[in-house]
């Protein structure tokens, strides 16, 4: 293995050699670039500071440091947060879930059976015999089950209409009756 020790002059010579080779093809371009370089060689200390230049730099710096607002269909003030338990059934638009990827159980579940299950679950939660998040993580057909049914914050127009209306009608901590959507049957707990 060879080791070379290069100094700044060696690197400059190599760069100049490459520049000469590439510039021989376009001498007019080199002359023009030399003129521009010469005209712009006034140091920044010699330049007269102008208000507009300083203001523009300040504005650019401020823009770079500001946090950009989240793109959302509604502002944080108009958002709600909810958790839910979904039970899919024969009438659901997508007959598969994280629990039942093949959809065998879902295809054999009637809407009435899903509603009956949810009513029992709701009674257990309201009576204090079960915790919403625990039941959601075991029973819900929604992938939010991994988070105890938590859907996070959302605004108007982001959920199916019946789900949205039911959630906005609830008070924080309140649990809905059965809500039917194209996804299946739900119970919803507003959390924020």
UniProtKB/TrEMBL annotation:
Compositionally biased residues, Basic and acidic residues: 45-63
InterPro entries, sorted: PPIase_dom_sf, PPIase_Pin1, PPIase_PpiC, PPIase_PpiC_CS
Record key words, sorted: Isomerase, Rotamase
Start-end of Polar residues biased regions: 71-81
Entry GO terms, CC: cytosol; nucleus
Reactions catalysed: [protein]-peptidylproline (omega=180) = [protein]-peptidylproline (omega=0)
Iron-sulfur is among the record's keywords: no
Domain PpiC: 77-192
Ranges annotated as biased composition (Basic residues): 86-96
EC numbers, comma separated: 5.2.1.8
GO molecular function term, any single one: peptidyl-prolyl cis-trans isomerase activity
PROSITE patterns with a match to the protein in the record: PPIC_PPIASE_1 (PS01096), PPIC_PPIASE_2 (PS50198)
Pfam families: Rotamase
Region called Disordered, residue ranges: 20-104
Family in the record: Belongs to the PpiC/parvulin rotamase family.
Role: Prolyl cis/trans isomerase with specificity for phospho-Ser-Pro bonds.
UniProt-listed PANTHER family: PEPTIDYL-PROLYL CIS-TRANS ISOMERASE, PEPTIDYL-PROLYL CIS-TRANS ISOMERASE PIN1
Protein name: Peptidyl-prolyl cis-trans isomerase
Organism placement in taxonomy: Eukaryota, Viridiplantae, Streptophyta, Embryophyta, Tracheophyta
